[in-house]
TrEMBL record:
Coiled coil: none annotated. Residues 10-124 form the Tetrahydrofolate dehydrogenase/cyclohydrolase catalytic domain. Keywords: Amino-acid biosynthesis, Histidine biosynthesis, Hydrolase, Methionine biosynthesis, Multifunctional enzyme, NADP, One-carbon metabolism, Oxidoreductase, Purine biosynthesis. GO terms for biological process: L-histidine biosynthetic process; methionine biosynthetic process; purine nucleotide biosynthetic process; tetrahydrofolate interconversion. NADP(+) binds at residues 169-171, 235. It catalyses: (6R)-5,10-methylene-5,6,7,8-tetrahydrofolate + NADP(+) = (6R)-5,10-methenyltetrahydrofolate + NADPH; (6R)-5,10-methenyltetrahydrofolate + H2O = (6R)-10-formyltetrahydrofolate + H(+). Belongs to the tetrahydrofolate dehydrogenase/cyclohydrolase family. This is Bifunctional protein FolD. Residues 143-288 form the Tetrahydrofolate dehydrogenase/cyclohydrolase NAD(P)-binding domain. NCBIfam families: PRK10792.1 (NF008058), PRK14186.1 (NF010783), PRK14188.1 (NF010785), PRK14194.1 (NF010790). GO terms for molecular function: methenyltetrahydrofolate cyclohydrolase activity; methylenetetrahydrofolate dehydrogenase (NADP+) activity.
Length: 295
């Protein structure tokens, strides 16, 4: 029997559907004023996983009424050609959001490309202007995965003020912005990573655990205090029982014995990421409109 019988599954699929419905409603309202937000998605090369991600983003954009503009470039595209495209997209008033699908081929400097995107069109929130703004607690375009995690946490816990959150992982894409968002929500935040000592003990003190590591089922019940809320960002493909499957960084079955609420993998954080990309595109369109009216 579970120590906490009323474990709550945090349903990212259902929440992302609500977020997308909210975005769609706002996009339709804008379109009545003759404005249609546009998202440019840039893919360099033909990595199969990246192709699937790009296709899903384009489909989702169309579903919510956002115009999507796909730019598929060959794998041997030079950095200067890519920077030229970014410059054109920055200047194009029909483009409100620019997403460059990562990873880029090795001969292209990823940082230089991300820094070339207009911060007001940076729907991934990776430009240093937005990273700095987030760490100052300003309202800026914020990386989609941590933004989606925050929505799940607010919907599950309400006010997060004073809660102790442990973030496992310190990547620029998930761990660090997640920590900044939790701080902004008045949590006490501990970030642990591959060099941290006493990981399990630190985790056991947490009201909220966010695992963004990339290690299948690293976190089990022994890492959790009873009643912890667990957000599992990890997506790991493993072979088990003769078949390939996706699992998170949390051992879901074990964690159920301790957690008050937990996200499944798949169906937890994953769908929220794409929903927040749409939300960011809408936010970017509004920011650019506000900027244009202020000039
Ligand atoms: P990353 O490899 O950039 O960073 C992993 C972090 O985990 C590093 O900071 C590292 O220090 C830490 N780490 C590694 N081993 C550790 C250990 N044994 N104990 C504690 N910390 C350890 O990865 P990322 O881009 O942050 O992604 C993390 C996971 O989240 C991956 O599984 C990735 O596929 C997944 N992800 C999911 C989504 C989504 O939409 N659900 C989005 C982005 C990433």
């Amino acid at each position: 029997m579970n120590a906490i019988p009323s474990v709550k599954l945090i349903d990212g699929k259902a929440t992302s559907a609500r977020v997308l419905a909210e975005v769609r409603e706002e996009v339709l309202a804008l379109r009545e004023h003759g404005i249609q937000p546009g998202l440019a998605v840039v893919l360099v090369g033909s990595d199969p996983a990246s192709q699937v991600y790009v296709r899903n983003k384009v489909l989702r954009a169309e579903e919510v009424g956002i115009r999507s503009l796909e730019h598929k470039l060959p794998a041997d595209t030079g950095e200067s050609a890519l920077l030229q495209l970014i410059a054109e997209l920055n200047d194009d008033p029909a483009v409100n959001g620019i997403l460059v699908q990562l990873p880029l081929p090795g001969h292209i400097d990823e940082n230089r490309v991300l820094q070339a995107i207009d911060p007001l069109k940076d729907v991934d929130g990776f430009h240093s202007e937005n990273v700095g703004g987030l760490s100052q607690g300003r309202d800026v375009l914020t990386p989609c995965t941590p933004a989606g995690c925050m929505r799940l946490l607010h919907d599950t816990c309400g006010d997060l003020s004073g809660k102790h959150a442990v973030v496992i992982g310190r990547s620029n894409i998930v761990g660090k912005p997640m920590a900044a968002l939790l701080l902004k929500a008045h949590c006490t935040v501990t970030v642990v990573h591959s060099r941290s000592a006493n990981l399990r003990e630190l985790c056991r003190q947490a009201d909220i655990v966010v695992a963004a590591v990339g290690k299948p089922r690293l976190v089990d019940a022994s890492w959790l205090k009873p009643g912890a809320v667990v957000i599992d960002v990890g997506i790991n493909r493993i072979d088990e029982d003769g078949r390939s499957k996706l699992v998170g960084d949390v051992d879901f079955d074990s964690a159920l014995a301790q957690a008050a609420a937990i996200t499944p993998v798949p169906g937890g954080v994953g769908p929220m990421t794409i929903a927040y990309l749409m939300k960011n595109t809408l936010a970017a369109a509004r920011l650019q409109r506000a900027g244009a009216t202020a000039e």
